[in-house]
């Protein structure tokens, strides 16, 4: 049954079977999980020297919209069943701008290194959203990125931030620092009448 949750993959590792079995169990409570497929599961515990198990679940890019709708319900359930910190990201491809099959061909913006790295970070912190980003340079010339997250998501995200930071560093070689702040964006309702000044 676990093999049904994997996209174009016949032989599964023991870790992938465990995650696949957990997803099939979750299907009974969250029906949208039936449409969610998984590409692979990678164990990052040894690479980042974490005390708790950290697994990165890679999903095909077409399944990302399904995952974003159910991420707030799915992640706690999956972590409870697998007993590890679960990070989910879509599989994206970086293309070189020099490799072309035709000389008039241009690379899509979604395949650039910057776009892929930003998309990866958004996936890792889901279901929260990024309020702001700053690039900072230390005295010795090294860069780090300060990411501002919504204060209302602090309780759910705080225990996962170290894992997110370390896995992102392994995947992209970029240093991150997270800060929580209040979202002060004010929205105007559609159809609201403007008050004319006298």
UniProtKB/TrEMBL annotation:
Pfam families: Ribosomal_S7e. GO terms for molecular function: structural constituent of ribosome. GO terms for cellular component: 90S preribosome; cytosolic small ribosomal subunit; small-subunit processome. Transmembrane segments: none annotated. Keywords: Ribonucleoprotein, Ribosomal protein. GO terms for biological process: ribosomal small subunit biogenesis; rRNA processing; translation. Belongs to the eukaryotic ribosomal protein eS7 family. This is 40S ribosomal protein S7. It comes from Paramecium octaurelia.
């Amino acid at each position: 049954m676990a093999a049904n949750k994997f996209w174009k993959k016949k032989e599964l590792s023991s870790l992938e079977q465990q995650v696949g079995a957990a997803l099939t169990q979750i299907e009974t409570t969250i029906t949208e999980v039936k449409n969610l497929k998984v590409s692979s599961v990678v164990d990052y515990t040894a690479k980042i020297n974490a005390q708790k198990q950290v697994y990165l679940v890679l999903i095909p890019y077409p399944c990302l919209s399904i995952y974003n709708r159910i991420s707030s319900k799915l992640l706690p359930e999956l972590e409870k069943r697998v007993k590890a910190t679960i990070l989910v990201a879509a599989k994206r491809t970086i293309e070189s701008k020099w490799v072309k099959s035709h000389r008039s061909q241009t690379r899509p913006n979604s395949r650039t290194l910057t776009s892929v790295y930003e998309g990866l970070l958004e996936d890792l912190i889901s279901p929260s959203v990024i309020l702001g980003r700053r690039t900072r340079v230390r005295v010795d010339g090294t860069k780090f990125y300060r990411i501002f997250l919504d204060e209302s998501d602090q309780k759910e995200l705080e225990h996962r931030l170290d894992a997110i930071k370390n896995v992102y560093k392994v995947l992209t070689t970029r240093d991150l620092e997270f800060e929580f702040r209040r979202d002060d964006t004010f929205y105007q309702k559609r159809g609201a009448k403007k008050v004319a000044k006298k």
